[in-house]
Amino acid sequence: MSAVNDTKLNSAVFLLTGIPGQEDVYLWISIPFLYVISIIGNSVILFIIKTDPSLHEPMYIFLSMLAVTDLGLSIATIPTILGIYLFNSREISLNACFAQLFFIHLLQCIESSVLLFMAFDRFIAIRDPLRYASILTLPRIGKIGVVCVLRGAAVVVPLPILLKQFRYCRSNVLSHSYCLHQEVMKAACSDITVNSIYGFYVSVLMMGLDSLLIFLSYVMILKTALSIVSQTKCLRALNTCVSHLCVVLLFYTTEIGLAVIHRFGNNSSHLLQIFLGYVYLLVPPLMNPVVYSMKSKHLHARIIRLFVK
């Protein structure tokens, strides 16, 4: 009898949540539309960087890594988004939910690592421009990409494995249109202490450490730029960092905001959780191509030529 009960508990489904107020059709249509725009924007960035040899430089290669990650995040979440908004399908099986949260957290960790290496790229370009190309060679950048993926996989793989061991007998209604580890584990009726501690460890190790190293990189960048005698060259050097700094602020602000809400905002508004959930995964992938295409004159001009033809 116990085995039957366990089977029923572990074959349960989670119910995903959309934005309350189904009568507002335009709002429901706009969410999937923005995801599609995000996918198109990052795809255009990748296409231009791949087809334009003049953009085969370290800065743009790192940008292409960022675009791939953002594209992956959009693709990982859009099936459940479309399922809710277009087909009114809110159910997701345990295994599908675990797979989705694995890819979401993996891609978030990879993006954090890429942003860290992009800060390192800007530091090298300003600190030692003559050796910039010899330090960040294509093979070395390729190895950096592999390290980003392996680093993310190493810390994220245990999350679905640990969740798989639990029984789920509490409320299975999730606050978002996709699965996140910090929310799924709360639906378990087992002891989640290990998951809670490990999830906090992952957040501190990946996001906390990366954001600290990015901050230190910008301290050194600012120190190096201010030592340049020519004010024009100093401003030009700092201007190359504006795009990356905007992307960093977008990424970590939404990341930290949602983490705080889930860990300490038990009494927070349900609508606020839903809103931050969309901001968390929609705004960075949507805005990253916009920020870089506006700040990079070469990329901006290339995009205009692509659509004017």
TrEMBL record:
One of its GO terms (cellular component) is plasma membrane. GO terms for biological process: cellular response to lipid. It is found in: Cell membrane; Membrane. CDD domains: 7tmA_OR51-like (cd15222). It is a multi-pass membrane protein. Residues 41-292 form the G-protein coupled receptors family 1 profile domain. Gene3D superfamilies: Rhodopsin 7-helix transmembrane proteins (1.20.1070.10). Its main location: membrane. The keyword Membrane applies. Pfam families: 7tm_4 (PF13853). The chain crosses the membrane at residues 25-49, 61-86, 98-120, 141-163, 200-222, 234-252, 272-292. PROSITE patterns: G_PROTEIN_RECEP_F1_1 (PS00237), G_PROTEIN_RECEP_F1_2 (PS50262). GO terms for molecular function: G protein-coupled receptor activity; olfactory receptor activity. Keywords: Cell membrane, G-protein coupled receptor, Membrane, Olfaction, Receptor, Sensory transduction, Transducer, Transmembrane, Transmembrane helix. SUPFAM superfamilies: Family A G protein-coupled receptor-like. It comes from the Eukaryota. Belongs to the G-protein coupled receptor 1 family. This is Olfactory receptor. It comes from Terrapene triunguis.
